[in-house]
Design brief:
two-stranded parallel ribbon, globular, single chain
């Protein structure tokens, strides 16, 4: 994921093409990018104008799925091999309207989100970032 991806998601939120956005990233991605793209994600997608519409969850996950529910209640799923980044690689995607698969992923990711969400308005963000940035790993 890069700034262009974040900017594109921000436009979709701003124009209300996306009502709610839950982004799941791996622990590896979060730790590797915690000083550059992760703060950018928070600054752009967790802006005051989007409060309650964006959530970032971090866990040991490597799935690449998008669940989309339209205003008309159609449930679509996109699965593939691509990470959210610009790449010259050949990637594979499956995009289908399938309520059963959508519900499966929705239930699974709701459990992940409940356990591994990072945005909690009851927590002090500065204290959280201080804890994250001062973690010391033992050899």
């Amino acid at each position: 994921m890069n700034e262009s991806n974040v900017d594109a998601l921000e436009v979709l939120l701003r124009k209300n093409y996306i009502v709610n956005l839950e982004l799941f990233v791996s622990v590896y991605f979060f730790s590797l990018k915690r000083h550059d793209i992760v703060p950018y994600i928070y600054r752009i997608l967790d802006a005051d104008e989007f409060k309650g519409r964006f959530q970032l969850s971090v866990s040991h996950i490597h799935t690449k799925t998008f669940q989309i529910e339209t205003n008309e209640g159609r449930k679509m799923i996109m699965q593939g091999s691509a990470n959210l980044c610009s790449s010259a690689n050949v990637e594979q995607f499956i995009f289908e309207e399938n309520a059963e698969v959508y519900d499966f992923y929705n239930d699974l990711f709701e459990k992940f989100s409940n356990k591994f969400h990072t945005i909690d308005e009851t927590k002090d963000r500065k204290k959280m970032w201080s804890l994250i940035n001062n973690v010391q790993f033992k050899d």
